[in-house]
Amino acid sequence: MGVRKKAQGTEGQGPHIGRRGLLIGGAAAVVGTGVVMREELSELWWRAPGVTKPRVDGAVDFTGARWVAASSGNLRRADRPDDYRVDRVIIHVTQGSFDSAVRVFQNPSHGAATHYIVRKDGHITQMIRELDVAYHAGNRDFNQRSVGIEHEGWVDKPSSFTARMYRASARLTAGICARYDIPVDREHIIGHVEVPEATHTDPGPHWDWDRYMPLVRAERKRLASSGRTPDPGATRAAE
Ligand SMILES: [Zn+2]
């Protein structure tokens, strides 16, 4: 989320386009560019019964996260990383309380949500499985290739970003990087504002990248030395 820079973007910024809408969009693309049509068709193929991986109710991708499902209007079912390669982590700031972020992500008309929300005290709630495409970047390509993390706070309020929040978020991001073999650098771990054609300014100037990145690197190293690469969906949600 965060402060909007200008006009609304594409995916994830407006009302949800339902399956019917997508089909109509795909057919309409025949008149337009063939590239778009092929993209829609390949997505529809992944929607065929029996193609997607089995899912366990309440499973989370990050051990310790609590599961609260986002509305299906704020995401697209997918089968990542098999259908789309995951190579970016995108950092957001909510511009509101943790509870209000959870609420809007449950609202089907919001049209946007991230995979995770990190609370000020370091608690993490997962609302969308990493398998699925969350509408959070305002850019279709970046939605498909990324995992989105919201942080409770305000871009113009430095006190929003607590030590516990940075540590918890760093553990989360390091786990994502381990799962998908994403390099821990600022090309692959970016702010919403750095997404091409981004319409939002979060995480803003007070998000301390110089503090955050070494924490992510340390957590990533710790995971590597433990020889543990957590499987997506392998753990049950924290009670
Ligand atoms: Zn954002």
UniProtKB/TrEMBL annotation:
Q: Which GO terms describe its biological process?
A: cell wall organization; peptidoglycan catabolic process; peptidoglycan turnover
What keywords are assigned to this protein?
A: Cell wall biogenesis/degradation, Hydrolase
This protein is called: N-acetylmuramoyl-L-alanine amidase
Q: Does the keyword Protease apply?
A: no
| Ranges for domain N-acetylmuramoyl-L-alanine amidase | 75-204
UniProt GO molecular function = N-acetylmuramoyl-L-alanine amidase activity
Q: Does the keyword Zinc apply?
A: no
State the Pfam families in the record: Amidase_2 (PF01510)
- Which branch of life, at top level? Bacteria
Catalytic activity, reaction form: Hydrolyzes the link between N-acetylmuramoyl residues and L-amino acid residues in certain cell-wall glycopeptides
Q: Which PANTHER family match?
A: N-ACETYLMURAMOYL-L-ALANINE AMIDASE AMID
Its EC number is 3.5.1.28
Q: Where is the signal peptide?
A: none
